[in-house]
Amino acid sequence: MEQLSRRRFLKISAATLGAGAVGSQVPVVSSLAMGTKPPAGKVETIPTYCEMCFWKCGGIAHVRDGRLWKFEGNPLDPMSKGRLCPRGTAAVGTHYDPDRISKPLIRTGERGKEEFKAVTWDEALDHVAGKMKKIAAEHGPESIALWKHGTGSRFFEHVLRAYGAINKGAPSFAQCRGPRDVGYLLTYGTGLGSPEPTDIANTNCLVLIGTHLGENMHNTQVQEFAQAVANKATIIVVDPRYSVAASKAKYWLPVKPGTDLALVLAWMNVLVSEGLYDKEFVAKYGHGFDKFAAAIKENTPEWAEAETGIPAATIRATAREMAKARPAALVHPGRRVNWYGDDAQRARSTALLNALLGNWGRRGGLFLQAGMKVAGYPFPKFPEAGKPKLDNPDRKWPFADEEVTTGLREATITGKPYPIKGWLVYAANLNMTLPNEKETLEAISKLDLLVVVDTHPSEITGYADVVLPDTMFLERHDDFYVGWGRQGWTALRQPVVPPPGEQKPAWWIAKQLGERLGVGQYMPFKDMDEYLAARCEKSGIDYAKLKKEGILMGPKTPITIEEGAEIAFDTPSKKVEFFSEQLAKAGFDPVPRYTAPEKAPDGHFRLVTGRAPVHTFSRTQTNLYLRDLMKENEVWVNAETAAKAGLRHGQYVKLRNQDGVVSGRVKVKATQRIRPDTLYMVYGFGHSSRMLKSAYQMGASAGQLNTRYKVDPLMGGTSIHQNFVTFVKEA
Amino acid sequence: MIEITTTRHNPLVEPVLSVWSWEIPVYLFLGGMIAGMMVLGGLNMLRIIKGERAESFYSVQTPVLGFVLLNLGMGALFLDLAHKLYVYNVYLAFEPTSPMSWGSWVLILVFPVLVLSALIRLPEAWPWLGDRVPALRGWSEAILARAGLVKALAWLNVLLGIGLGIYTGILLSTMVARPLWNSAILGPLFLVSGLSAAAAMVHLVASLVPGHPAPRGFLSGALAMLVQPLGAAPPDAKTSVSLVKADLAFLAVELVLIGLLFVGLASSSASHVAAIDLLTSGKYATIFWWVVIVAGILVPLALQWLELGHRIPHTILPALLVLAGGFALRWVMVGAGQASHMIAATGM
Amino acid sequence: MARYGMVIDTAKCVGCMDCVVACQTENDVPFGYCRDWIVTETRGEFPNLSLEIRSERCNHCDNPPCVTCCPTGASHVESFGKTVQVTADKCIGCKACLSACPYGARFVHPDGYADKCTFCLHRVKEGKDPACVSVCPTHCMVFGDLDDPKSAVNQLLKSRKHHTLLPEAGTKPRVFYLT
Ligand SMILES: Nc1nc2c(c(=O)[nH]1)N[C@H]1C(S)=C(S)[C@@H](COP(=O)(O)OP(=O)(O)OC[C@H]3O[C@@H](n4cnc5c(=O)[nH]c(N)nc54)[C@H](O)[C@@H]3O)O[C@H]1N2
Ligand SMILES: Nc1nc2c(c(=O)[nH]1)N[C@H]1C(S)=C(S)[C@@H](COP(=O)(O)OP(=O)(O)OC[C@H]3O[C@@H](n4cnc5c(=O)[nH]c(N)nc54)[C@H](O)[C@@H]3O)O[C@H]1N2
Ligand code: SF4
Ligand code: SF4
Ligand code: SF4
Ligand code: SF4
Ligand code: SF4
Ligand SMILES: [Mo]
């Protein structure tokens, strides 16, 4: 544990205020006659938006006597409403994190051995550009692929596209919200994107299927969830685990993992058979309702009880609660819905359930996202792409509307239809993030070049040929975040403090690389300040004001029918597709059909994952504040199950999955808060990178155990909850 | 069925409070012992005034030893402080509600009393010094000549002794937050335990350094001075016997008080009941049962009983055991007491 | 003068620990230490469960044993808001107050003095809420004057069921938990 007093610590890693930074100067009232020394010093406040996760809340950084002091919410920002989540608040602890990468590195040992030599930026960039040119010469620029997650990837994508490297992938689709967006796209003609247009604040009945708000700290939604609780909205939580959200709910349905679709079908069956659904909405906007109604006829609560373990009476009661509250009843569409490989259909079923509640574009339901226009930068046109992308060959996954990461990985392994020889990985810890690390490593073994642009020496960096240290978000400019929500807005990211070491901002690295690749003309500006100023200029935005306030709100437009908004659906039928011809044509169930999950082998339990409020995936375990609050994850085991297995609360065990993969040691949390047949572990722990000193081998990695996965035939999403594990007791 | 989790992770506070290690037990033990010595010494001085034969009673006075032990005790206390440079603040304030404040001030008074008491016998106790600094003899006689002064000193010894002894217990017992300490018995218990430790100590040193004639060498003299009975005579049989008897009594009472402590806790709140286990079955149990109760009380009781009956020869073993037991009592109480905490009675 | 207190709505609190992080950054609380922390209490047996989540800190007790036991007056009741404070330069680090507090609210700062929640008086004096209160994403904490019947804290205490921690300790805590 870090014993060093923070005051002293700050002295050690002293840093002075960034040049670009501006803001108001507020001297803190000097110390009170009160002992335990209150903060004192000259304070400068600089607004920027957060990237401790991808919610992108607006915040205000406080720099005291030239040192980063604290990061608070920006009251002008619609996402944070002046309050950040614990990870955002702890951003300070990432800036000061001693485990960050501080110099460009070039591999000296074998891949994965984490042996590097520090080099200058010129050496590193020349090396990368040289290798890329070689790959482009031998195979074409398409053979270089980009892995990306987060705002900073913006200009890498830009530069690589300019260079002709068209292949890319982000885990946020096939490993996250992809199935949901496809499910809604098929039903309403539009995905939901981020942030989801859920009017949680005004709903009278909130249904959470999984979605563990309060542990999932997507800030705005947690704030609204608390409002819903305060408003005494009827909350229904479906979760095999007694989540925090479940503890606030009127109904907790401890569903058998993998059977949610049965539950949703039964709910719809009740709404239809009891005539409780929104007939007006269905009549006006519904397509193929009768075929739909016929298809779910058999899915009675009694039938679902046998599948889900939820009493038929409870299923009826909860369905009626929803009906009572509609249209201000909301079934949360979910976010990380990639659980079982049939997730797009489950997502579609919740889309249909929402349709029966008639909550599209309604107050307390799903509102219509509003945005704002910000002019783009006048870039030169990209050259024509030489070859097609290869992540989804001949639309193997017909309804994927974004790149499929595992498709890209597969193509890298097979070299078909054409080889992938270079990966540039920006802010995605592929070893943990993608299912079955073995395949990721196999793909890496095919590469002539693996460049990782990261802030931390995460697992993927251990395999990199070249590691390029990025600044963390408080130390860099990025492009604007133009957000969609109840009202559009634009958020500015600007540097608050300089990086502690030789780290360089993502945009700078991309620009340097572009110049070396001979596509410098595609970033024809000196720096981001110039770029952002130009965009503001063109859009008639007062850049100086934006620098001071950090947030610019767009026009207020109606977002619900109550406010006078019009609704329309961009599906083939231009209606809400209860019955989907496109799915039928492609050979899939036009109305979601339930198939039971397979049983766990004897002595095995289904392992499911989720979030801890104080960590983001695998990226915050070394954060100086967050690691004190949660330094390792635990495996949740039902108390009776634990007793039967002879496990004590707090003892360390390892987990072995069906493929013989054994996890690191992890503490047993023997608890009543989970089903006897299910184990739960927070994702992102159990780091195997020795360079992450304070996180190395702390807890177990759910990613490592995710070796068996199903692929969603509709859109290529990969499952995460299809692994069965058993205990390996520690000596 | 309740599952409780906390994210608190402060050193010395989690998982159980452990702010005090060996220093405070040492301080409490020595404090109690000094208190005992002062009471015994004081009582004897009173008897002298009543005109009884001085030597034998003086011989059980060891104020110089007390003076030295006091410094050791205060030293231990100082070592425990986390903000040492600011220690002077204790004497910039008197906090009437703070036992620790009372204790600090009592200790300040104890010093001069011990010095004066020592002065009475210094010249004889340390002839080497007496010969060279005749003035000391003068003072010593001057004090002895004034019965009133001796009487006052005697009473100061007794009263401050009792105060100091009880304080070592009150310091802990006032803490409602620590159920194991939170008992009115603790003050008397520590006082009596202090008395028995004192008796044992005096007994011990008297038998270790009966030294007559008093050594006149610099070092030997200095050592002897700590404990040297006044005059050429060792404590007479009567005195020794009375010491042993006293010790028997103290040990017996101590045993009873410990019993009462348990009865008190057992008949109190859930938190107090739970606290008992910390002593009787927790990680302190072995030391409590074997060192405090058996070796520290029962065995010496038995041995000294037999000694009185002349069934076994007189040895220093009982004294050593009593001292060990006395320290173990403080150590166990301080350790287990910190670990004891209040349990929410009201369901939340 | 005001008598400050805090009311925390356990029905809203999600245990996200934001209040803990905000306190650390705001008050330069050393790494490895905390002035506030989260306690969860799960009752019942699967699947009939209840969960109370509490953000705990110094209760700024009306009857503070940490103050009465302090030999130097370092621990004292500050006239401003009748809050319990520690004057570092008077503290000798004897740790009596750590033992005397039934709530484990205090710790020894690496610099040697007793430290704990100050109710962010430096912010309150500027008219702001304490850091933990103003960061809370669920708005479940309310800070205010318990002596002012019209204050938000009193309104909540009037209208909602609530409890304090270890009332039997006789400390009269001023952090209240709505249930
Ligand atoms: N603090 C924090 N917050 C985050 C993130 C983070 O890293 N840290 N990440 C953000 C991102 S990118 C995403 S995608 C979201 C993910 O957050 P969510 O979208 O809420 O993720 P889910 O997988 O829906 O929720 C996990 C919950 O589902 C339950 N569950 C597991 N299996 C099943 C099942 O078969 N059926 C049902 N009904 N429930 C099940 C688990 O017990 C757990 O409570 O979180 C976002 N918010
Ligand atoms: N087993 C399992 N797998 C999962 C999930 C799960 O719950 N369980 N969740 C899935 C979901 S929902 C998602 S969204 C994905 C998330 O997948 P990822 O986005 O890959 O999540 P992280 O593990 O945080 O990896 C992020 C990497 O970016 C680095 N990084 C952080 N900030 C910066 C920065 O500012 N600049 C640069 N250059 N690098 C940075 C971090 O050090 C880390 O190496 O994971 C998916 N995979
Ligand atoms: S949700 Fe938290 S981590 Fe994510 S952007 Fe907002 S404040 Fe930052
Ligand atoms: S910040 Fe608010 S919601 Fe989060 S733990 Fe603290 S009190 Fe609870
Ligand atoms: S909570 Fe503890 S530290 Fe705070 S005032 Fe009460 S007793 Fe003192
Ligand atoms: S540690 Fe400091 S504040 Fe606490 S009681 Fe001792 S002197 Fe007082
Ligand atoms: S009031 Fe201030 S000092 Fe106390 S816990 Fe909250 S933030 Fe920390
Ligand atoms: Mo995600």
Verbal overview:
The complex is a heterotrimer of chains A (731), B (348) and C (179). Helix content of chain A is 29%, strand content 16%. Chain A has 24 helices and 26 strands. In chain A, the strands form six sheets. Chain A has a seven-stranded mixed sheet, with helices on both faces. Chain A has a six-stranded mixed β-barrel with strand order 21-25-22-24-23-26. The longest helix of chain A is centred in the N-terminal third of the chain and has 19 residues, at 121-139. The model of chain A is unreliable at 1-35 (pLDDT under 50). Chain B is mostly helical and 348 residues long. In chain B, 70% of the residues lie in helices and 1% in strands. Chain B has 13 helices and one strand. Chain B has helices spanning 23-49, 54-58, 63-80, 99-125, 127-132, 134-145, 147-173, 186-208, 218-227, 237-266, 270-280, 285-308, 317-339, and one strand at 2-6. In chain B, helix 4 packs across helix 6 (134-145) and helix 11 packs across helix 12 (285-308). The radius of gyration of chain B is 22 Å and the shape is globular. Chain C has 179 residues and is an alpha+beta fold. The radius of gyration of chain C is 16 Å and the shape is globular. In chain C, the strands form four sheets. A four-stranded mixed sheet of chain C has the order 8-1-10-9. A two-stranded antiparallel ribbon of chain C has the order 2-3. In chain C, strands 4-5 form a two-stranded antiparallel sheet. Chain C has six helices and ten strands; from the N terminus they run βαββαββαββααβαββ. Chains B and C meet through strand 1 and helix 4 of B and strand 2, helix 3 and strand 6 of C. The structure holds ligand MGD (2 copies), iron/sulfur cluster (SF4) (5 copies) and molybdenum atom. One iron/sulfur cluster (SF4) is lined by residues 13-19, 38, 55, 136, 138, 140-141 of chain C.
